[in-house]
Amino acid sequence: MSCRPRERPYGVRSSAFRRLSWAWAVSMCGDGVRSVALPLYVAVHHHDPLDMAAVAASETLPWLLGALPVGTLVDRLPPRTVLVVAHALRALATTGLVVVLSAGVDTLAVLCAFAFVLTTLELFADPASQVMTVRLVPPGELERANSRYYSIGMLATGLVGPLAGSAIFVVGPVWAFALDGSTFVAAALLAATIPLPGERVPARAARRGSLKSEMAEGARLLLTHPELRVLAVLVAVAGLAVSAVNTLLPLYAVEQLGPHGVGLLVAVFGIATLLGAALPTRLPARLAGARAMIAGLAAAGAGFTAFGLSQRPAVLWGGCCLAGIGLGLWNVLCSSRRQRLTPPAALGRVSGVYRMMTWGLNPVGSVLAGVAASATAIRVPLLLAGAAVLAVLAVLAPALRRGETGSPVVSPCPPDAKHLADVPPAW
User: 15-196+211-420 has which CATH code?
Assistant: First the structure.
């Protein structure tokens, strides 16, 4: 008889969760490769702020159009099947782009369509991963599991993927997109091997109301809570600013640092964001609430403003560090407060409306940034983005401070991994 301890059927140490973590890590690396390769391809081959804005808007538009209905649909479908199919279709779409670019057809319409399709499929893959996590991890280990997801996501999309993407892009842009597609193939194969007992459409789905009624209920819950409204406004403004930075900073960085420096700049931003996300657990309790949230968002706004104030490379590096630390700190604290203020049974619906109001505004920020840059200069929209964040924060900071002691707290809910970030990550 073997004395080897029997492996746990579920939990963060189980084989099933390890496979899910690896599938997440590999697909996030693919997202990181594309986060550099796609805007860099547009910057090098098109070199037009309006083209940059069009691709960036196409990549974020699905958040506005589909975040809420897709989130509700995923709750009603077998999560492993959704995850495998989504990754497989992402691989197929990326393969199609490789074929098209190899044939010399790099029109703006093709790039915009690719960006739109990839994000649409991501809307299915991400919540499916979270449903599987809840099934594979007991309640007492959810915090640890989601912490691992957040670290994996930031390292993959902010460090490993961008560095690999920028290095391979120098060899050939098509090879960078080929690497992106291969990560989704690997993720789909890993997800298909995850044992998930009793996978089927949840029985509770039959007792639910219509999609329309659930969307309306989520919107009502979010908009009638005073502190959730404040958080939604702050995150919406910060999201608009980040989308403007995401749209123009690659082109700005190419001008200042050259193509070789873009990936390194993204990696620096990712490291800074990880450092900022680690701060909440190290701050004294009296500083880890609204004060730290305000300080984090103020640092992000100051970093964005710095991009527009000076063209020196040193300012570009310093602004990335400051903005990264600020966004990392803000995202962890803001997300935790939002989840504690939301009834657990309504977290999915409220999160869907929240994403639609925040991430869904990204196309607006991208388009406004492109138009403003074409009419003036690249620095102007970057300066305005930082100023807008600082101005709105100055107005709403008192309400944020009051809400810390005045709002009732509902039973806490676990973070939502990659989308722990209430503000979309820069690049």
Answer: 1.20.1250.20
